[in-house]
Structures are given as structure tokens and as C-alpha cells.
Amino acid sequence: MVLIKVDGVVFSYDSHEALSNVSFEVDQGEFIGVIGPNGAGKSTLLRVISKILRPRSGAVLLNDVDIQGMSERSVAKDMGFVAQDNTITFGFKVRDIVLMGRNPHLGRFDSESIQDIKIAEESMAKTGVSHLAERLITEVSGGERQRVLIARALTQTPRILLLDEPTLHLDISSQLEIMDLLKRLNAELKLTVVSVYHDFNLAARYCERLLLMNKGRIEALGTPKNVLTEDNLRRVFGIDVHTYYNPLTDSIYVVPLQNSNWKGFKRGRKIHVICGGGSGGQLMHRLVDGGWDVTVGVLNLLDTDYETAKALSIPIVSEAPFSPITEEAHDQNLKTIRESDAVIVTDFPVGCGNILNLEAAKKALESGVLTILIGADSILSRDYAKGQATQKIKELLDMGAVHAGTVQEALYKMESILTGEVRL
User: Fold this and answer.
1) For residue 299, which of 58, 106, 124, 291 sits 20 to 30 Å off, Cα-Cα?
2) How far is CA 165 from the centre of its chain?
3) How far is it, in rounded angstroms, from Cα 104 to Cα 75?
């Protein structure tokens, strides 16, 4: 059942058009998140829906009734609005703040009834602020204050809760408390929730649908999986991201990568990374962010480092999952190495299946390619090739491979040798 219908809404601040022909519908009981860059029109949209602002054209329908034909009191009975700015400087008691939510139900000279007080107490109980009832609002924490304001909105007994960045300026614990509270209210009270967020991952974790806005228009509307795509976020925010399903939260997770605006920065030097088992993630990120032309291999499909390289758009010499390195993949790796200015070998576990990667590092040295070994002194603890890996690392060091204890040291030594510059 459609509860809210936004139909062709246009809104302007003087000559600036903040909303441009915005149309969408919200079903009863939905939990919708509104996301987008600063200035996209997110807050303006909520204020138009709640009748705080009047659209220049178009309409907001509540149960098929244009809210512009409804009184503010009638709208407030159906919609609770928690604004972005929750500053309250006057020392009201928490109980009094929550009771203010009954104002739409009271006449001009009416006092709160026993029933009104009961509703306020129930709202405080639902939001976990009953113990704060006699405290001054100026004395509670940011997370507590936000729960008090949600309790005030609930005291209006609305069917719809509108929130403008409810987790703004809160620590991670308080953010999760607020989001868990909203999800519980949505489920238990069948409360329709429309809320603005800046955190993609919080929005994806809790919202059924997301509305992505940019420059006053809707760019995408749908499930988090369909909205939080790499293409959408690159187009709207100008950033490269990697998105994947996070089984711990049962939701899409967004990892920001290098800002697209910096992609023009290149050093013109090729660095080949030999890694595996998650040992190369930090190094690959640092190299890409530093403007180096990076390749990696040989990596098995499904390896953690393979997924990282893929997310960073790094060319990969790959092998089938759980398979030893074939001569074909090894030859391709050697070809890539011959085209490189340096090779960095991480402290990956070495077994019979991937020992050819150390042989590739040896070929790099024989070809005069700068070769750096990270954590060579830990090879005994990660040698699963019956001592062969330990012997090969010793050979590499004897041949002139440079040892580095950490990724930071490896990058410092590589750049110092390649360019003569000293950079941390």
C-alpha cells in the first residue's frame, strides 16, 4: 500500500533549483534511506515531504491526499520529523521534551491528559530513555539526546518517521544503537521510516531500499545492491569503490579506493608484486595510491590478494583456484617481470604449489630487475615446501635481493634506489 507519493516535485531556493522533478513512492512499513553528496537535495526533500517547505510545483500525497491541503497539525499527527540540528539550549527536563510530541493532539489551551503522559512514557520506554526522564536535556550525551528526540517524535503517534542524518556526530556505538532502535521500531510498530544518511554501509545494512540523489535529481532507487554499484558511486561521488557482500552484516559493503580525481598522477615506473594469502593488500594499496604502475602474479583465483588486486584494477597473472602454478602462468609472470622496473616479494606462505613464484623472483634478479623481499627472516615459519622455500630465499639474498622488514621500509628502499628521492 502506497503511503507517500512524491509526484514531480520541484523546489527552489531563490534562483537555485534544489529539487528537479523528483518522483517516487513509499509503501507503508518501508525503511528507506536517502543518500547522496552534500548539496544533493536530501534534507530539502525531507522538509518538502514534511510540509516544512512548499514545492514550486508537483505534490506530496499522503494516502492520496495532497499535504498542501492539510493543516500542519494533521500532517504532524501522521509524520514525526527528527531534524539534523538537535541543539536544545534551554534546560528542559527530558520528560517535558518528550511530552512536546503531544502538541499536535492538543488544543491551544489544553494540558496533557493522563493518556498523553502514558503515551510519552511508553515512547521513552521504547527508546530506552525512561531513566533520563528527570534529567535536563542539556546534561545528556549526543546518543541519548538523539533517542530523546526520536521518543518525542514517537509521542506524536505517527505512521511515518522522517530523520535527517540521525547518526551525525555520534560515535560508532551510538550510531549502531540508533540504527538498531529505528529498525526495531520499524518492525514492531510497522513504522514507515525515511532517513538521510552519509554512511553507505550503515544505510545498506539497515534499509530495504535506497534513494540516491545528485544535484536535486534521483540517480537511482532500489535495493542497496542495485543502488550502491561501483558505476553509480563513481558517477555521483567521483570516487572509485569496491563493493561486495559482507556475510557478517548480511549486506552490501562499500570500500572507497583511490579518488578518481588523482588518477592522472603516474610515476611511469612499473612495479610487479609477488604475494598471496592476503599478504599483499597493504602494499598494493600503497603502490596504487602512490601513482606506480602495478602488476601482480601469480595468484590463484579466489585468493584474498586476487580479490584486492581486482578491486584496485591491477593486471593479474592468475591461476585456477587451489591449483599449482602451471608453466604457462609462470611464463606469463616472467614476461610481466621483464617489463618491470622492480619486483617486491611479500611474506606469503610458500608451498610446492606456488614455489615457482620464488623462482620468478630469481629470474628477476638474473635479469637485473631490482628485487625486494619483505620479511625474508620469517621464511622458516611459512615454508611449507620442505625447506625448499628457505633455500630459495637464501639464494635470493645472496644474489643481491634487498631485504625490508616492513611494507613501509620496502617502499622507501624501492623509491630511493629507483629515483634517488627520499620519501616516506
Assistant:
1) 291
2) 15
3) 9
According to DSSP, the β-strands at 31-35 and 192-196 are parallel
**Residue 214: CB atoms within 10 Å:** 18
pLDDT mean by block of 10 residues, the chain; 424 residues: 95 93 96 96 96 96 95 94 82 92 85 90 94 92 92 96 93 92 94 96 96 97 96 92 86 77 63 94 90 92 90 90 93 95 95 94 94 94 92 94 93 86 44
Length of the chain: 424
Give the rounded distance of the alpha carbon of 136 from its chain centre: 35
Question: How many angstroms separate the Cα of 21 from the Cα of each of 8, 48, 418?
Answer: 4, 13, 55
Q: What is the pLDDT of residue 420?
A: 67
Instruction: Please tell me the distance from the alpha carbon of residue 31 to that of residue 201, in angstroms, as a whole number.
Output: 15
Max alpha carbon distance in the chain (Å)?
92
User: At 172, phi and psi to the nearest 5?
Assistant: -60, -35
Distance CA 79, CA 248 (A): 33
What residue has cell string 610487479? 272
